[in-house]
Amino acid sequence: xxxxxxxxxxxxxxxxxxxxxxAMEAVSAVKMRKSQEMAISAKPYAEAALRILLNIADAESFxxxxxxxxxxxxxxxxxxxxxxxxLAGSLNSAVLKKAQKVLSEIANSDVVAISLGRRGNDFxxxxxxxxxxxxxxxxxxxxxxxxxxxxxxxLEIHLSGQxxxxxxIYTNFKSTFEQDPQILKLFPLSKESxxxxxxxxxxxxxxxxxxxxxxxxxxxxxxxxxxxDVVSFLVPMLANIIIYHSLLxxxxxxxxxRMVAMKNATDKAGEISHLLQLQFNKARQxxxxxxxxxxxxxxxxxx
Length: 303
Fold this sequence. Notes:
By secondary structure, the chain is an alpha/beta fold. The protein has helices spanning about 5-40, 45-55, 60-65, 90-105, 120-125, 150-160, 190-200, 225-300; strands at about 75-80, 110-115, 130-135, 165-175, 180-185. It has a single domain, classed as Pyruvate Kinase, Chain: A, domain 1. The protein has a five-stranded mixed sheet with strand order 3-2-1-4-5, sandwiched between helices.
């Protein structure tokens, strides 16, 4: 049985851990809301891009664009978005299972991998898959411009004919207590994939939730001499939007999962601290009772 000193020291240690997890919970809550607000604030931009895409979806230059038209041969490209840090429950393991599902049907030699996040990079290494580009995912203040490095690398690989399709595997933020790993097809680009992305930006529950809506193209005319230029500029921009919003969703999911994990840890630490206090009180009471009994016995022996 542990001594009074050991019980006291253990409880003090648990209480210190509880303070740390409570602080991490508060920090993650702020970061989660900030990441979610970033995704929501950029939604009108994505919606405007979708409307433009719907308007030119029937244009010949769009249909024949190599980023839109299906390709019969080539490898499968995978952009895997994970976190660099842990203490986020099953967040990373869930998205890695989703990636495993995709890769299980493809030979390693037929995969072109890009990793945004250390956990994804480690996953590809364990699978023996060479990573064409790896970026850390530590910074929370990410801009769309910073995503162009990844987008340009994907465009370079795809336009060279090495790949026939590209998938983005990330974690979609549905609510504070629910994050859902998703597979979104990046190339060949389609209006369905953009619409799916926009519908997923607003969470199902909470302050920023809103009903899904779709857009129909309006009547318009694109000048023949500028149509190709418009398409060539628009399609890479849309691809970058998809990658950027996937990252924002993953960021919100990461901070949400960490907040919940830290809340559970804080609650558990409180329970353990309470149990240790009860054990301490019982042990102290037993020690007092024993001392009183010894004193009483000594007095009786002296009579």
